[in-house]
Design a protein that fits this description.
434 residues; single chain; Immunoglobulin-like; five-stranded mixed sheet; alpha+beta; 10 helices; Helix Hairpins
Length: 434
Amino acid sequence: MLARKGLLPDGFLLTRLAEDATHPNRFRSKSQRARFITKTGSCNVAHKNIREQGRFLQDVFTTMVDLKWQHSLLIFTSAFLCSWMLFAMVWWLLAFAHGDLEPRDTDGIGHVPCVTAIHSFTSAFLFSIEVQVTIGFGGRMVTEECPLAIMVLIIQNILGLIVNAVMLGCVFMKTAQANRRAETLIFSRNAVIAPRNGRPTFMFRVGDLRKSMIISATIQLQVIRRTVTAEGEVIPVCQLDIQVENPLRSNGIFLVSPLIVSHTIERSSPLYEISAQSLATEDLEIVVILEGVVETTGITMQARTSYTPEEILWGRRFVSIMTEEDGRYSVDYSKFGNTVPVRMPALSAKELDHTRGVQEKGPAEGQPQGWGLVRAGRGGYRRGGRTTCDSAAASRPWYAQADKEEDKKGLKKAVKLEEIGREIQEESIEEMSD
């Protein structure tokens, strides 16, 4: 859609199609599943058999804003035409009742009409338009002969202002809707699962095509899946929140350049038991919601997309699209959704924990839980598993072999100290006996 609007180059889609042909996903399902949120962010739910249709008329303004443009323009035009025709009929009836439509001499001495220069319904319709839109050509005007005509003039002016305010307000709200700003927020067509800092991680990329910033941008992930309770009740829509990778435990992001949003798959993750083989058969949908305030207008906006199992690539990661040129950073959007394969086992995170010796039991009851920070390279930290106050092994990754050796050395030192203590204690007992 963005390529059709000219916001992204056609090379982006061509690169994506060539990549899919070169590296097909053998675990991808052939059947097309239904989804709640489309790739463009619209809701893919059809509401049928709604009996209480009158509830929509109780909120007429929102109903008119939600209508399509062709329907809104039809209502906009019909509202003005109907009001003009209605008051044209009123002015014609006033002229007919007062006898202004009867043929008279050219001099017209002794008869003062309610509205001058009204001789037919056509002239009454033109006068109605002049009154409501305040054109005032000067050929027709209300006289002092008919007080009722003055009252009709006041009523038409008031109703004309109301119609103008409502119609123009609807058009303004439709043009300034928050989802219009979301058209320049793009998400990667596919999400990936790849190892990051020794843990399998779910990742996708998001970017902003405009130079104006999104203030207080937050991102939220939810998994929608079909579950069955212990009593056998089938819950077709079960929503589970996913924690975004952030040591501060907040979902805020600074969208100054395209970012790779990640989620570490651990015990608390809904994706903990998903492997490469089971991914294609999973009945789930990962919904991404990006919210923020538009810097130029101050309107709160929301951008949405979703990823189904067919759109999640296993064992791939995104390529780098940012370079530094002439003292500033440059972003190449033609590689926005490109991925490269990485070495990754087809096992789930739970199976990896079993094979690599991570303890299966969780934190003890009654102990507070926190978010551990594990050193990840030079000067960086990543969020590890859930930790307890007195259990350091729960947050220790499976690859920390050096920690086990240090523990063994610590045990040896403790034994030596214990033996020395016993010898000192035995010598003191012998001295006391002497």
